[in-house]
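Morning F.,

Quick status update on the modeling queue. The single chain you submitted on Monday has been processed. Sequence for confirmation:
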Amino acid sequence: MFHAKRIEGSTMLNSQAQDQKSCTLAGPNHEVYSGVSEDATDALLIGRMRLLLAVSGLLAIFVDPEALDAIDTVTLSVFICYVGYSVVIYVCTTLKKPTFYGKAIHWLDVIWFALIILFTGGINSFYFLFFFFAILTSSFRWGLEEGARVTLASTSLFAATGLLLETENELTRLLLRTIFLLSLGYLSAHWGESKVRLKRRLAMLRDVSQLSNPRFGVDNTITSVLEKTQDFFKADCCIVIMRDKETGSHTLRSIRRTKPRTSVSASPISAEAAAPFTLFPREHILVHARRRWKLSDTPIGYLASDSGTSTWVHHSDKAADSLAELLEARSFISVPLSMRTEEGRIFVASSETALGKSDALFLAHIVAQAFPMIENIDLLDRMASEAASLERRRMAMDLHDTALQPYIGLKLALSAVRKKASEDNPLNVDLERLMAMAAQVIGDLRHYAGAMRKDMNGTEPALLAALRRHAAHIMKFYGIKIDIGMDGDLHMNDRLMAEVLQLVREGLSNICKHTVAQKGAVKLQCMSGWLRIRIENESGGEKTAPFSPRSISERVAALGGKVVIINDPDGNTVVNIEIPT
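Structure tokens below.
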């Protein structure tokens, strides 16, 4: 590690990282399954069809030249150039060049098609059907907005070429073909949006179905589900109100776009504060939208549907309007939640997006998929905590009975030898040092045994205290000064704290074993849902060769994090560890 004298396993880890990197396709809207990009597959298929369309269009000139008004060298050149363009696009998509997966490709197609129509008779050209190729590819890959833009652009260019070449007898044909292109293009864009929305929903259900790392606990899992739900609906806030079935007390979890994202725990609130969220029938799925322009004094109310049914009923209830004003939202949706010991509701509110019935029904699917998993994690978490508590008590007794007694005997034996030695014996200093080390180990073992008998809560002061004791131990026996610092509050449970403590100890141990440093530092920070650990040591001005600490990398990878090693401007070697919380 840190300015290492001996590095083991770094080559293997680096090769693994490169293999993982090579299986991932960079760029937005790219989903990777088993190393194969879905966008790459679609682009390759579209490239083949584009090439087939271009070749077919060129052959049509020779098969039936009389169907076109005129065939000249310029027209033929346009077709040949488009075939060449299609070949280039097909070859580049076959070579998996991400640049050719974007939106610019179908816009280039629109321009090519406009040129082809312009040189093949305008309104009378049957090549106007080529526009549907660009409309379909844009709609089914990018959704309604992009499909609508391509439809409008295609219709406008077709109308422009028609007006440029039109005669008095062709206005009717221009009108009919323009309306035909516009209407079918819009339908294609609408159906394409349905396909894109379905893919997003399936991806969302897949994400919330994946079990969270049990080390992070229930709060982290619920926070992750709320964040993904908020991002999916492009909402401003996502709120969960729960009521304990036995005590009747209420708790609140809230995620807002304007606040930094950290693990959100349940906060108790009074019944009065929870009242605006609990006035609706428990079994109803709610959809509420506020009017931007109020045309009458009639309250908007809300739409409600019983869970499991497809019937929606309008309710004129001012409570929904009041709640929308409280949330500062244009619209909100809500579905009921029911767990083993609690019941309540989840609310998703947005000030811009108009949430509708389909959104509310899909939110119900998310809840049905995610919260049974959360209950299982809660049960697993409590079982693990109880098992860990029993194991700590057993280990405390084992430490006292097996590990501690030999060190006590060693200290007594060293004390007896020291008493037998004369005052001028040159080994007295070494004997006293060994006695001090034995006493230190006995004290540490007693402290560990005492801590294990207690149910540790994993709070920040306990973690800092343990790190400072370890730093003091290093200073005493190795002469290396380690500064321990913490920026802000840390949010972690006892199991994650134990992992972090072990990571830092491993890093400090590597400083002692593999470097000649006399100073080091450890800094912990929790920000934006990530725990950042910075371990650094001086390297004497020498640049450290690239390496990877195997033990630390494996532990961090098991926690879903990453390790980055750098040399800072001061010449220190720094290990940056990031772990999701």
